[in-house]
Write a structure and sequence with these properties.
Layout (H helix, E strand, L loop, with lengths): L7 E6 L8 H15 L3 E5 L20 H18 L5 E6 L6 H9 L4 E5 L8 H10 L1 H13 L9 E4 L2 H9 L7 E3 L12 H12 L2 E8 L5 H10 L6 E10 L1 H11 L5 E5 L4 H7 L2 E4 L12 H9 L3 E4 L15 E3 L4 H13 L1 H19 L4 H12 L2
Parallel strand pairs: 1-2, 1-3, 3-4, 4-5, 5-6, 7-8, 7-10, 8-9, 10-11, 11-12
Helix pairs in contact: 2-3, 4-5, 7-10, 8-9, 8-12, 11-13
Length: 388
């Protein structure tokens, strides 16, 4: 490598078919971070290298887990073709049961290989497994089956980069050498300028006390819990805005709103929206997921909330532990407990001064935690170690 040339990092992702997922946002944020520190990011996927505005093709794989497993082989083959033009290969994989693909990539190339494991593995007994399957058998059972049947990783790659200590502990218990583990928060991509539609929505939020949800209508996101809590809230003046990503079944949500008799106080708005603009006017942001299995850890929406500053009600789970203090920077509630969620929503309405202080403290915490990762040193050490 010429001393004058920046390091070239090949960033590969399996799921780039839907840019509103936390996986894609973490991937794009990392690519932006590399560019901001003078490194050259080359983005790739099983489908090609033409990301809109930055060089790569979107996949159309949908949400079928076993289809993703098959695509891993395509990602490995793509890595082998990309490797000669980069100094380090860095793969973003959804969950620990996909880590075996990193082993295959490492066997195909002599370049350093980094794997980012975005989410935690399930640590469930039979009772918890059955509880998840009761929520949605098709949604959870296929993921749990994939986790159980996937080949075990031999942890052949040079580094495993994860978003928090909990996932690092999981990988270490699974056999990953501690020396190969590194922890860095997922990076957030910068937001564009606010669009007129988001500004209009923000004006609606400012006119009435409004709670906000941003994300998918999938069984693990807790939308049903949120609707039940909102319906039980003794505040007829309150409103709820659901900024729906497009993943999940909106008609199921609409039917539930009608059954709870709150359809006239709840609006479903299509994503994308400018999050920070809405966060500034929301009384609180709710992230009441019922399971953190399969979600980016820590959740990207939580990081976005801390960056912008918005009172946050989030489920208590390993993926959110260690980031923020309950009652000071966020409110934690037990997963699936609509009564606790309702009580925190009532507190957000009754204590606006507390909510305002929460916004300021969140921004301070984010500024302290989000920076500090030295991209050049991290990748440079791998390139140096790989030289004869």
């Amino acid at each position: 490598m010429s001393p004058a040339r920046p390091l070239r990092i090949g960033l590969g992702i399996l799921q780039d078919d839907f840019e509103l997922t936390g996986e894609y946002q973490a991937f794009r944020g990392w690519a932006e971070g590399l560019s901001g520190e003078g490194l050259e990011a080359r983005l790739f996927s099983p489908g090609g290298e033409r990301l809109r505005g930055a060089g790569f093709a979107r996949l159309r794989s949908g949400e079928v887990v076993f289809r993703k497993i098959l695509e891993q082989w395509g990602l490995a083959a793509r890595c082998a073709r990309v490797a000669p033009g980069v100094d380090v290969l860095h793969l973003f994989l959804p969950m620990p049961f996909f880590l075996w693909i990193g082993d295959r990539v490492k066997r195909l190339t002599d370049k350093p290989v980094v794997v980012t494991c975005l989410a935690e593995a399930p640590e469930l007994g039979l009772r918890q497994w059955l509880a998840l399957c009761r929520q949605s058998f098709r949604f959870h059972a296929v993921r749990l089956a994939a986790a159980a049947l996937a080949p075990a990783s031999r942890f052949l790659c040079d580094r495993y980069l994860v978003g928090n200590g909990f996932v690092a502990e999981q990988l270490e218990r699974a056999g990953c050498p501690a020396a190969k583990l590194a922890v860095a928060l997922p990076r957030l991509p910068p937001e564009p300028e606010p669009d007129e539609r988001s500004l209009a929505l923000a004006r609606e939020l400012a006119a009435r006390p409004t709670f906000l949800y941003v994300g998918h209508f999938l069984p693990n996101k807790g939308v049903e819990v949120l609707l039940q809590a909102f319906a039980a809230l003794a505040a007829p003046e309150a409103r709820l805005l659901l900024a729906w990503s497009g993943l999940g079944d909106a008609e199921v949500v609409r039917r539930r709103l009608r059954a709870l008799r709150v359809a006239d106080r709840v609006r479903i708005a299509a994503h994308p929206v400018h999050r920070s603009v809405l966060f500034a006017q929301a009384r609180a942001l709710a992230a009441p997921f019922t399971s953190s299995f399969g979600q980016v850890s820590p959740p990207v929406v939580m990081l976005e909330a801390f960056r912008a500053g918005v009172p946050l009600i989030v489920s208590r789970a390993p993926s959110t532990a260690g980031f923020g203090e309950d009652g000071r920077t966020l409110w934690r509630v037990p997963p699936g407990d609509w009564r606790s969620l309702r009580d925190r929503m009532a507190l957000a309405l009754a204590e606006p001064a507390l909510a305002a202080g929460m916004r300021e403290e969140q921004r301070r915490v984010f500024a302290r935690k989000a920076g500090g990762f030295d991209f050049a040193a991290f990748y440079g050490s791998l390139v140096g170690a790989a030289r004869p």
